[in-house]
Amino acid sequence: MSSPASEVARRLGENAEAVCRRYLSNGRREGHYWMVGDISNSPGRSLYVRLASSANGGAPGKWTDAASGDHGDLLDVIAASCGHTAFRETLEEARRFLSMPPPPEAPRNPAPTKAPTGSPESARRLLAATKPLKASLGEAYLVGRSITELLPDYPLRFHPHCFYRASIDDAPGGRPAWPAMIAAVTDLAGTVMGVHRTWLDPESADKAPIAYPRRAIGHLLGNGVRFGASGTVMAAGEGIETILSLRQVMPALPMISGLSGAHLAAITFPDMLKRLYVARDDDPAGDAALSTLSERASRCGIDVWPLEPRHGDFNGDLRTVGRAALAASLRSQLVPSDRLKLL
């Protein structure tokens, strides 16, 4: 028997075009797909939602962002559109949209079930099969991006043969597994809720030559890849490399990677947080994430300070101008009281 969430996702898929017209209104239908800029409903054509079943078994309602490699179902779209921070809110909104009745009460002693692919449980199993990042291809990949200061407590691991499910955009006959850098996605309590995978090419120590070398699984909404314990002053950004670039010059500042603009906008705020620096990417998704975060933070009494890169993102800055120039650029953007403490 399918789970209530799976049934809601299936029903949304059956009504995929109506869902897209409601929650991705800046897009348009093109053949069997709905095209839009990203999951935040920005104009463009990077994200495509399948509107009908495909010949190879692809289900309607599944989406892929060709720019970021993110993918998911229409529950993710609704969560991003409504700015939800809890999965329960998303299910309630989806049920309202579909005019579905409330779900029946769960049995008191449900039978154990196998963890489905993409669940937090499967993410934890993958994480348990990893090795330390040090002296691995994962470390070589980061060093190649000028990220050389990697602390032992960082939530980064390495998997030598991580399965890659090919998409319709991949060339046929590709290898089924690649080495991968694995990042743990956790909630505020430190519980692993998902993992992010960056598949790597052992020949070049760069991203693997596949259509989507970055993918995440698990419950991502509200959670992220955390560097340092939560505090009154923190920084948040989209990509892992963005956050690691900032940590090269501000290692004392706790930071969180949301992994995408939509998930950055939905991160859960720690109770003690008073000031949040947002390391935005210089693109429409970065603009949307900053706007949503600022609105949510203001309602919680949290000050938001944007950090602006010079070369698209902060890893671009680090690689182009180096640590000293990056630190100088950040110094002018920090609150004066933070400059001496953080730089």
Automatic annotation (TrEMBL):
Sequence ranges assigned to domain DUF7146 in this UniProt record: 119-227
Alphabetical list of InterPro entries matching this protein: DUF7146 (IPR055570), TOPRIM_DnaG/twinkle (IPR034154), TOPRIM_dom (IPR006171)
Cited Pfam families: DUF7146, Toprim_3
Transmembrane segments: none
Domain annotation Toprim: ranges: 234-323
Biased composition (Pro residues): 100-110
Region of interest (Disordered), ranges: 98-122
Designated name of the protein: DNA primase
